[in-house]
Amino acid sequence: MSKKSIVLGITGGIAAYKVADLCSKLTQQSYDVHVIMTKSAQELITARTFLTLSKNPVMTNLWDETDWQPGHVALAERAEILVIAPCTADFIGKFTHGIADDALTTYALTHSGKVLLAPAMNPKMWNNAAVQANVAILKERGIEFIGPASGHVACGNNGLGRMSEPSDILGKINKLDA
Fold this sequence. Notes:
By secondary structure, this protein is an alpha/beta fold.
């Protein structure tokens, strides 16, 4: 049985630490996990964590390519699912409007498979009209969402904005992969 390729994109939300557990669970289920991290994500958790858990190189920079074919393009040729967790308002806005200014946003625009976003942000950000308009556009394009959940967020507020739990995200990935 061949392992299915999945790209796990990590953005700069404090919930990035929870994604280590998701990455581990995915590899335990025989997914071939490839991680792409934004610069902000690297401020919160190290690429080495995901290298260890995924057993694959972690892409953090578009300009570190050593092969003739850019890594994000080659990866897009074989990855079946793109999961962004945590998915910040910044990424949602860039993805909605086709802005490709780092490795993750550039990859996302080359990915032709299924996409799952797991938003995580301050509840006021999540409820902002611009964010909600972007979410509506992405849903119209067939992008899947899980969450956000309601509860305590890192800034101390309570409300809709917590990233869904890794086990719930895994369940949604398994449904998308069925």
